[in-house]
Write a structure and sequence with these properties.
It contains 17 helices and six strands. By secondary structure, the protein is mainly alpha-helical. It has two domains: 46 residues, no CATH class; 344 residues, Citrate Synthase, domain 1, CATH 1.10.580.10. The structure holds carboxymethyl coenzyme *A (CMC).
Length: 431
Amino acid sequence: MASNTLTIIDNRTGKKYEIPVNNGAINASDLRQITVSEGDFGLMSYDPAFMNTASCQSKITYIDGDKGILRYRGYPIEQLAEKSNYLETAYLILHGGLPTKPQLEEWSYNITHHTILHENVKKFIDGFHHDAHPMGMLVSAVGALSTFYADAKNIFDPESRKKQTYRLIGKMPTLAAFVYRHSTGMPYAYPDNDLSYTGNLLNMLFKMTELKYKPQPVLEKALDVLFILHADHEQNCSTNAMRGVGSSHSDPYCAVAAAAAALYGPLHGGANEAVLRMLMEIGSKDKVPEFIKRVKEGRGKVMLMGFGHRVYKNYDPRARIIKQVADSVFEVKGRNPLLDIALELERIALEDDYFIKRKLYPNVDFYSGLIYQSMGLPMDMFPVLFAIPRTSGWISQWEEMLLDPEQKIARPRQIYKGADKRDYVPMDKRK
Ligand code: CMC
């Protein structure tokens, strides 16, 4: 008997099966041969929320949640945060290796020269209510780009995919800044191609009447590091949405809209906004023990936002780096008064049995909102700032899915628990 197999004895029939094990996994379809009678559909695995199911093979991002390790294409996140920049990291994620100097120059040129939006985009952003949530506007606006680029539906043409990649990574900051300016009633500020990716975003967000906006270098760098940290995170909820929607062969703008919609939720990318609301609700450091008590008594109803992760059962390595970034930003903009509450929450939670037993540690969203707030951004823009850098990860995962011969349209099975067959009851006979 081969050693890399799993032997299953079905006690319902007494039959024995040998199933191959590859990469620490069995192929769920191999279970289908396990039947109890002729016509039986075969054994399925039941896994709500994909707690123990690998939906793909991927070469992009590696996470070891127990050890707190995150690597893009093999490179540790700590090294990328220190030595790389967002556009180089996006190149790495999409192409599989670090670019040479000419490759990086060409890549950056192409992204920079796809930052301008069609003027009509402004018209439908104008149509949103003044207090529309920026994430709702972003989701709609990026989906609407599908109507401007008909060539995007040629998803199996590598040239078309390349073009949409430039457009999506180039235009996401412009869309983000436009929805922000719309919320504040400010005129839209156009991209400045002389600036870096994050310098230009700051320009489009904050430019007033000056002829040339000069981004504050510490803030520009801080945003760049945050963007590196947010670029990809393997099969999270929004990436799964990107792959799932993309698997029906819709165009990448619609798939990114779906991914961004998934990111919007407070359990995912909306957590950075939720953390700030929680810190404001707590109000002061002395109220922290009372809040922690509520979380423990609430048992899943009151959450310590920015804590916990499906994969990390250790300190999220991104949160560690973000804490350092926060210090650099506070040096320029002044200490965010909510920081003391956050530090106290972390201190108490990391010593508390409830959190220790469940391996709940701060995640990427715990401190990022404090930085964005210190930069002068309102809370409802925080998930938008997550969506911009995650776009490179989404596209990379989408392309990997499209080119993977094992992938098909994503279509899970279900276990039906509803009513058995019954006959239609006319209205006058219903009770
Ligand atoms: N506060 C209090 N209790 C928690 C928390 C929390 N933040 N997170 C998990 N728990 C408890 C949960 O109630 C459960 O307890 P019990 O075993 O008694 O039922 C236990 O810990 C296991 O949690 P789970 O809900 O089974 O874990 P999950 O893998 O399904 O959920 C999570 C992961 C991130 C959705 C969850 O930890 C959470 O909702 N955290 C707060 C929201 C948040 O910060 N999200 C950002 C995630 S990181 C950025 C990103 O990639 O989006």
